[in-house]
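Ticket #4471: structure output looks truncated?

Reporter: J.K.
Steps to reproduce: submitted the chain below (274 residues) through the standard prediction queue, then opened the result file.
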Amino acid sequence: MDGRALVVLALGLACGGLGCVRGLPTRSEAIVNATELEHARPGEAPDRDLKNRPPKATTCLNIGHLREAAAQSPDAPPAYRELMREEARRAYQRAIELDPNCTAAYVALARLYDKTDDHERALALYQKVLKKHPKDAALCIEVGMSHCRFKEWEAGLGYLRRACEMEPENRQYAKTYGFALARAGRADEAVTWLSKAMSPAEAHCNVARMLHHMEQNDRSREFALTALSLDPNLAAARELLAELDGGRAQGAAGDPAASASAAVLPAASPFPHP
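Returned output as attached by the reporter:
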């Protein structure tokens, strides 16, 4: 990232940080301010005559990211978060208008639609850009994860598998596909794919954790025991077995919380709770 881009990003961060107190600039003001700095030469003041200098798609994309980040602020009131999401949507759409081949803007907008449960519109965007880049493995991962978040397992797994076939050496793709298989209830296949990105013992342990999260505790215990048989020193498997045994003990005592014990999904898993 060059110096001018850093200045643009700093401007956006400053605006986002002051938004709750002083009021964020409007969408047009933010784009104009960023564009002035973008076109300014080192050591020169920004040019105020921007009639023939439209903002770049990347500038609008960055503004969208900043607005979306502001919408995630836990202390912000609902109306402010909604306003920031709307600003982000417009910025992403403006980026697409400026550069119809800006794949990142399509993906960012589709993700935003998914976050607001507008899944149909998100998929329409994904399909539009996928037609232009059918061999883009990262894009297939995005589409697959979108389907999986809404438990459309057959379609989602198909796209994830497609990405893995395009890039068979990509360990992160194999891991993502493996977790999706586990979440979809295909535990044995999940172990196979997770083992491409980690040890077989860790793969069994991760699947066991996912099964525990899905409240399939008997199967979870089987996979955890297999993990320990493969690696007796695997602390995560021992901890999971202790958690499972503790849950059984509480259940026997009549604790209604036993069946709803808190399970932590692996960090790489983007999929919803059952």
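Triage note (M.O.): checked the attachment and the full token line is present. The CA atoms of residues 215 and 260 lie 8 Å apart.
Status: closed, working as intended.
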